[in-house]
Amino acid sequence: MFPVLLKIGSFTLATYGVLVAAGYATAIWWLERRRGDMGLSEDAFWDLVYWLFAGALIGGKLGYAIVERDPSVLWHDVRYGFVFYGGFVGAALAGYIQSRRKGFSFAKLSDYFGVALPIGHAIGRLGCLAAGCCYGRHTDLPWGIPLNGDPSRHPTQLYEAAALAAIAWIVARQGLTRVRDGRWRPGSAFLLYVMLYAVARFLVEIVRGDDRGTGWFGLSPSQVVAVLALAAAGTIFALRRKPA
């Protein structure tokens, strides 16, 4: 669609990279404004952000290598070649480790990231649209867009971006509010995000047209992970939603 934002001589600035960076920056900005509510000092906040970024980078690359079944992609260009769920798991593990090291409440912090993650992810999906990746199948619907040699494909990047924006709003207005006023236990808003995104991702994958590897039972790898994530988060949510 619009893969290059700026080109000066041999220097090329990819639109995808700019929008992904904008997604990270917006999510961090949202979190930083709530640093006091999270109970973090400035140094502790930025330490956590660096840990999460490293975890997402490593996890996203490992996930891509698993889906592609090609270990060589691990040392390819770090500007592309990532799997969201791999990055999600990597960031969650990094956040848990850092929380244990510093004595933070992982559950409490995760609720705020349950809003920040879909905010940043939504903006990043616009980068996918600009790069022409993560495209949909052919469609005769009037909003189909030309991508990858097909004059009319489902704009799956926009579907997911819209779903993520809605998820961020729901988690902030419903989940985080209920946690902060004591109606839900800490961690419940984050679980709400996991469940909502799992449903959204599963549905969007139905009309994806790019090669995403092979999962089980005719599902894509992301659909398999989405089903498992929904089952796990839903079970935990049901068990710990209400205060003891």
Describe what this molecule looks like in 3D.
Helix content is 65%, strand content 7%. With 244 residues, it is mainly α. The chain has one domain. The chain has a two-stranded antiparallel ribbon with strand order 1-2. The protein has a two-stranded antiparallel ribbon with strand order 3-4.
Per-chain topology:
Elements: E1 4-8, E2 11-14, H1 15-32, H2 35-38, H3 42-68, H4 84-102, H5 106-131, E3 145-147, E4 150-153, H6 156-180, H7 188-206, H8 221-240
Antiparallel strand pairs: 1-2, 3-4
Helical residue percent? 55-70%
Name the average pLDDT. Answer: 90
Instruction: Outline the low-pLDDT stretches.
Output: none
Helix and strand content put the structural class at: mainly alpha
Q: Summed up, what is this model?
A:
With 244 residues, the protein is mainly alpha-helical. The protein has helices spanning 15-32, 35-38, 42-68, 84-102, 106-131, 156-180, 188-206, 221-240; strands at residues 4-8, 11-14, 145-147, 150-153.
Protein traits:
two-stranded antiparallel ribbon, 65% helix, mainly alpha, 4 strands, 244 residues, 7% strand
